[in-house]
Amino acid sequence: MTVNIRCMPIWLGFLSVVFGLLLPVPDVSGQALDKKLPREPIQITSNRLEAFNDQRLVVFAGNAVAVQGRKVIRADKLLVYYKKGADDGKAEPGTALGQGGDLDRIEAKGKVRITELNRVVTGEDAVYYQDDQKIVVSGNALMREGDSVVRGERITVLLNENRGLVEGTAGKRVTATIYPGENSKKKK
């Protein structure tokens, strides 16, 4: 079963902000705000860091935690992939990974938990696709804000389209429990 989650624009914004933790945040015109406003530093900790220049990959393994301000991503492992350069895709000797290459995707693997204040997204895996501006959380995916909860096997957020999709499986349907007045009460 598939449910369109147009009724939860807050989640779309939340997921885009959280996965934007490791990316420049665009303003309304689509330009990166990094050049205009100072941003909080990103602190990434893990038991191990491995960089594979030939594969354009940085792996933070073992209780990986990325924090920027109030946004936190936790997973067993965070994999940051960069696009291949104009040449054959191999980094030149002495070139630091991430220089001369744009972000391709970020994968969070194993017991993924993304939080900001009272908003929580969990699942077994999550992938942010830079070019497609898409986030996919899979493996018993759950989104929670306050008491409101949406569950499915897979949650896909299409950032440029301001919409999302929650999918179940043949044996496990999508569920949503939404408390409509919850956000309006907090604004007063």
Write the layout of secondary structure elements.
Layout (H helix, E strand, L loop, with lengths): L1 E3 L4 H11 L23 E3 L2 E5 L4 E12 L2 E12 L20 E14 L2 E11 L4 E12 L2 E11 L4 E5 L7 E3 L4 H6 L1
Antiparallel strand pairs: 1-10, 2-4, 3-4, 4-5, 5-6, 6-7, 7-8, 8-9, 9-10, 9-11
Polypeptide structure, described:
The chain has helices at residues 9-19, 182-187; strands spanning 2-4, 43-45, 48-52, 57-68, 71-82, 103-116, 119-129, 134-145, 148-158, 163-167, 175-177. It has 188 residues and is mainly beta. It has one domain (2-27, 41-84, 100-187): Lipopolysaccharide (LPS) transport protein A like domain (lipopolysaccharide transport protein A fold, Sandwich). The protein is globular and about 45 Å long. The termini are far apart.
- Can you count the beta strands? 11
Shape: globular
Helix content: under 10%
Number of domains: 1
For the terminal residues, how far apart are their CA atoms? 37 Å
What's the overall average pLDDT, rounded?
Answer: 75
Main beta-sheet strand count, sense and barrel state: 11 strands, antiparallel
Q: Poorly predicted ranges (pLDDT <50, ≥5 residues)?
A: 1-18, 21-38
